[in-house]
Amino acid sequence: MYRSILVPLDGLTFAEHALPAALSLARRTEGSLHVVLVHTAFVYVESGLIYDDRVDRQLREQEQGYLEAVVKRLKAASPVPVTWALRDGLVADGICEQATASSADLIVMTTHGRGPLSRFWLGSVADNLVRRSPVPVLLVRPQEIPPDLTQEPVVRHVFIPLDGSPLAEQVLEPAVALGKLLEADFTLLRIVKPVLFAGHDPTLLGEQALGQPATEQLQAEARAYLERVTERMRAQSLCVQTRVITNLQPAVAILEQSLEPPDGLIALTTHGRGGLTRALLGSVADKVVRGASIPVLVCRPLGP
Q: In terms of Cα–Cα distance, which of 130, 82, 129, 136 is closest to 104?
């Protein structure tokens, strides 16, 4: 797994911060690295979108030269085989098409940049891609300084939030595969929302405001569930611990837990269907992706 890794670029340095992680993983698997830039034929002017054949040719030549320069830098930093592709069309479509064409096992990309394109990149590309990608997507945060291709990113701990559903558990295989490559250990998280008595202020967390017996029952069930999953993982000689956290805001709890120990990574599925699955894998995943200061591995679950 992860022997063919794809990195989408946009010509800006911020997107290149995905390259050290991708190069490191390809090096560990003795795999290959592919970079792609999706060419957009239209340019923005005050009056809207226009097409200019001369500008389009110039831009395409610049993008090709940029990709060739990136590949040259990558080959100078590592013997990993590297290819590049310049595609046409909508950005997310082009990335998905290239992922299929290059038989990619993983897409590594930055979550956002800065300046006028940053909102566009996060909203229309990363958001769209993690919901449609045929393979897992590893999202990393860009740094202020230029990326160092010789640097080995360090990940010592993988946090995996689960909600008890089979859909959420689909992240386990790609997360474990990535953790093994990184020689990391694992923490399984289960967030339990406290049971509140009707009419009480939900901001109060004292025993009088909580349905304490019902909450404790949910906590016990959550611990038992995580232990069952842990047994399967420990059978693979993995170092695994579990945490059951009671919190009204699951995304906040996940982000707080992922801060300790440092050098971590969060792995979760992007969406599900109905009930608790929808609660954890929909809005919660979105908030985690936007709020995380560490890399996030996101997987689109299969099935109904």
A: 136
